[in-house]
Specification:
The complex is a heterodimer.
Chain A: H1 10-59, H2 61-65, H3 69-82, E1 94-99, E2 104-107, H4 119-122, H5 125-134, E3 142-144, E4 151-160, E5 163-173, H6 178-224, H7 242-304, H8 309-332, E6 342-343, H9 345-361, E7 365-370, E8 376-379, H10 380-398, E9 403-410, E10 414-421, H11 428-431, H12 449-459, E11 463-469, E12 472-480
Chain B: H1 2-12, E1 18-22, H2 31-45, E2 49-53, H3 57-65, E3 71-73, H4 76-81, E4 86-93, E5 99-100, E6 102-107, E7 123-126, H5 132-144, H6 149-152, E8 155-158, H7 162-170, E9 176-180, H8 181-190, H9 192-195, E10 198-203, E11 207-208, E12 212-215, H10 220-232, H11 237-246, E13 250-252, H12 260-275
Parallel strand pairs in B: 1-2, 1-3, 7-8, 7-9
Antiparallel strand pairs in B: 3-12, 4-12, 4-13, 5-11, 6-9, 6-10
Amino acid sequence: MLPRLRDLSLRYKIPLRGSLLVLVTAAAVTLSLMFREYDQLRDDLIASSASMGRVLAKTLVTPLVHDDVWRAFEIINSPFHASGHELAPQTAEIVTVLDSRGMVYVSTQPTQYPILADPMRTNRDFSELQHAIDHYREFEPTVVEPLRSDKLYVVAPIVSDGVQLGSLVIGYSKSAFAPRFYAIAKRAGVVTLFVIAVLLPASWYWGQRFARPLMNLARSMEQVSTRIPAEAEVRVEESRDEMGQVGAAYKAMLQELREKELLKREIVVSERLAAVGRLSAGIAHEINNPLGGMLNAINTFKHHGSDDPVTVKTLSLLERGLLQIRDTVAALLVEARIESHPLTRQDIEDTRTLVLADANGKSVRFEWENDVVGALQIPSTLVRQILINLMLNAVDAAGANGVASGHVYHDSRDLHIVVANNGTHIPPERMEYLFEPFSSHRAGGHGLGLWVTYQVIRQLSGDVAVASEPDHTSFHVTLPLETQPA
Amino acid sequence: MLSMAALALRANAQDAAVRFGLTPVFLDDHAGLLKAWRAYLESRLGRPVQFVQRGTYREISDMLRRDKLDFAWICGYPFVRWRRWLRLLAVPLYRGQPLYRAYLIVPATDTTTRSILDLRGKVFAFSDPDSNSGYLYANYRLAQADERPAGFFSKSFFTWAHRKVVEAVAAVLAQGGSVDGYVWDTLEKFSPELTSRTRVADRSPEFGFPPLVARASVTHAEFDAMSRVLLGMASDGEGQDLLNRLNLDGFTPGSDGLFEDIDRMMRAVDRSDAAAPA
């Protein structure tokens, strides 16, 4: 089935419409030129034949008065002999003299119009001609163009001393115009074809150019349902016209969609982290109670003593295991220690000293910037914990001869910690689970460092943003300062 | 050389030019032929010759009678009508005889007409009212049937020349025409495309060929000189050449007896016209 015209792509529709417009315009111009030329031909003919009619009519007076048929015949034939053998376009086809009763007096075509015959019997046009003859104005030649006739007539009265002796009828075949008319039409056609040859490709080119941004937009919009195209993929018209406005609006809409998508994912991640946090806290409490009991029991048993070496060895094995469980659970169960003092510049400098030793050991260059002045209303211990965790991670990730950096600054509302490294970047698929416990793929880690850091940040009502690309991974922690000193 | 001599003579005797009237009894519209014939006459006569052409026979006859012309080539009909004022100079020999016929011609498309009486109610072309073959004979035929052209034909007209009768019939402007047989035959020889569009439907008995005449008052010397030149044409090469172009064989002195039939027909037609109701 053919596609419907309205379903056709703009790529074709616009050029097609343009072409149609070009064709219609060309046709209209050609036709109007041809009609004008036809009118010109006709006017020329009427002017020349009217003057010829006037001359002939005057010459015919004497033969009619003398009833000299032969002389009249010679006179009406004279225009034919004058213009040579071949009939020029403006040569009359027939000249007929009618007597005062409207009957044929003499005609250049006596076989069709015999003397004394009624011309209407041969040619119906004569009924209209007779009407013109009956209504001469000032005895001037009149042009008659009967309906449904291929002839054009000039009728001129033959008048002597105010008395109408008869009428001269000069008939022209309109088809005699045809060769000249066709010549003009042919010329107009050639010019039109030339114009079309120039305009059609131009129309196609402009049509395509006009359609292209729309097509790009449409193609891009189609993708939105499956995924939001990246900024670089969207090619829209950079202009201030409607096309450009649509493109800009579309881009803005995509940007909003992208932000919304990001937000949604962040919410999902943080909700999951919160759920994991609640779950682990619950489990930690449930484990801590019996664990405390078990450790107490082992302690009591040790106080009361038993010298059985197997028992002592077993108990100490149990105790070590239980203590490891307690450490792990304690790490999971991050609790704010509210009794911490406000943060000072020195607190932050201390963390640097700690990390620097590690960095030096691993041949990592460590860049540092500390813009904190005075005491900030924020628990120093927690901030130090966050800092140390992130910076140690950064040094680890940077690897040998890598670069890690730490930058701490604040404004009136927030404290900012930015920690970065130029090591292997975090692949996007890991990003979502980055802060979940035991998600670390790093050798040597227990997978709780970032989890703890995240929990601490959340407890301080702060936020963390991670950006990772090859050679640059950065963690940006934002912690709100307590505006009212507690 | 001859024309040089003629020019010299003409300069000496300008007043004594011979005035020679011509009518369309023959092909008087061939200017080249007329120029050659005039030069021939001038050289033979030793006098300038002036050809005078008029549109009708009547004008030439009138000029002869009023001594405005010395000689003229007219038709047998005006000759018998104005016999008293004229002297018979010579009669052309056509096909060896001083005789010719009148032809009834019709368009070639008309294959049925055999006689002028078949053309009742048609348009008819005469050549000249003073022509025997182009008018008198046809009238005579109608008068014999107690008819006159005005009532018999729906319309009749004069073309004032035999050749134009042929043209009128060829164009079917007229459905019939009466024409000099010698002219038709000559046209058939020189313009067959014209005569082929006509058909000779009827031929008259033979009549005396249109004669060359002199005014009655012409001197014997002038009459004899002209007669001698004309009668001698057949016997010299130049004259023979001209006769060929005229489609004639020569000239003979002729006699009034040649025109008796025309005279008879004239009287019959005159009687018929007189008897006709006014």
